[in-house]
Amino acid sequence: MMDTFELPASAPAVVAHGKDDLRIEDVRLKQPAADEAVVEIAYGGICGSDLHYWLHGAAGESILKDPMVLGHEVVGTVARAAADGSGPAAGTPVAVHPATPGPGAARYPADRPNLSPGCTYLGSAARRPHTDGAFLRFANLPARMLRALPPGLPLRRAAVVEPASVAWHAVSRAGDVMGRRALVVGAGPIGALAVAVLKRAGAAHITAVDMFDKPLEIAAAVGADAVVKGDDADAIAAVEADVVIESTGNRFGLASAINGAVRGGRVVMVGLLPSGPQPVAVSLAITRELELVGSFRFNDEIDQVIAALADGSLFTDPVVTHEYPLSRGLEAFDMARDPARSGKVLLDFGA
Q1: C-alpha angle with apex 165: 71 to 43, nearest 5 degrees?
Q2: CA distance between the termini of the chain
Q3: Is residue 185 within 8 Å of residue 192, measured between CB atoms?
């Protein structure tokens, strides 16, 4: 059936038109380029950047100027393989690496394409024309983005591959965590997935911090040994973690991360703070000789994540708390915006 697939003229999609203007509407489908496969999307996870485009009309400095299909956390099945013969065959279940490294004059390490200045991402308004995402029934995607899923790994479980890869990259930036004390500040989907990755990597003790009970419940379910409310500064300071993953994306979370790190410890900043100057307790970082390390997206960690999900060594199921059919997509976004009620919220494009 896949070999005789005919691309329909249009398909339903999640489209951001501007601030507070999110629509589920049919979009016209183009014929794929020679190096693109048509992927029948099964599940899509709603990311913080998707919420920002809806709620603010921008994600950081990426300002929405034209209607854009959202979504970069997607999995599905190849409906039509790329005409040039590259990539997986029709019928193959796949996850998607949504980045396209770009050329640029700025220097960066060749083995870290996530740092390339011209890098684009599915569902990003960083450039104009915007790069449409894949929150639609049928998506034309470059074959190089596709990662075949091993037998036995269900598409629904694989729906967290992209955010889990962000978490895996962040933990890798912390160095060897085997036998070490870890602190995760912010137990939203990325933070909870970082807990799961730390658990798999052999951290001796993991403490998760959040302002809400629901994220802390999820963090405990995927491996946190202790949970602390975000306003308990004394309890956070008492952790004295060797490695800290900061995933709140706000200055208060970063302050907690610095306070909770042991002298000589390392703080990995994966939560994206707003652009511009931020008040940071730099004096503590200096006198305690802390290492403050950035973490941005990921590279080939996606392949390790897929393997770990497939062999069961990475346990992430509790991170997904809600699932909605695409027809109820606006309701799904409303749930995803509330961290007191939800973890990762999925859209089911096949329902």
Answers
A1: 35
A2: 19
A3: no
* Helix or strand (DSSP H, E) at 1: none
Q: Based on the domain organization, do 277 and 224 belong to the same domain?
A: yes
Residues 6+ apart with CB under 8 A from 34: 82, 83, 84
Query: What does the pLDDT look like over 58-108, one tens digit per residue?
Result: 988 889 999 999 999 999 999 999 999 999 999 999 999 999 887 766 788
Distance, in Å, from the CA atom of 171 to the CA atom of 150, rounded to the nearest integer, reads 24
The length of the chain is 351
DSSP state of 237: H
Q: What is the average per-residue pLDDT within 297-316? A: 97
CA distances from 248 to 49, 52, 255 (A): 13, 14, 11
The angle at the Cα of 201, spanning 195 to 205, to the nearest 5 degrees, equals 60
- Give yes or no: residues 188 and 332 share one domain: no
Residue 166 phi, psi (nearest 5): -60, -45
Tokens of 171: 């933990």
The alpha carbon dihedral of 324, 329, 333, 334 has a sign of negative
Helical H segments across the chain, by residue range:
48-56, 155-158, 161-173, 189-200, 213-221, 233-239, 251-260, 282-287, 301-311, 329-336
User: E strands along 46-85, which residues?
Assistant: 58-59, 62-63, 68-69, 73-80
Task: Evaluate whether residue 306 is within a structural domain.
Answer: no
pLDDT in tens, 138-176: 999 999 999 999 999 999 999 999 999 999 999 999 999
Check which CATH number belongs to the domain holding 246 and give it. 3.40.50.720
Task: Compute the distance between CA of residue 189 and CA of residue 336 in angstroms, rounded to an integer.
Answer: 10
Instruction: Verify cis geometry, omega within 30 degrees of 0, for the bond prior to 339.
Output: no
pTM: 0.95
Query: Count of alpha carbons within 13 Å of 271, Cβ hemisphere only?
Result: 26
Average pLDDT, the chain: 95
Residue type, 293: V
Task: Give the domain extent around 13.
Answer: 2-160+316-348
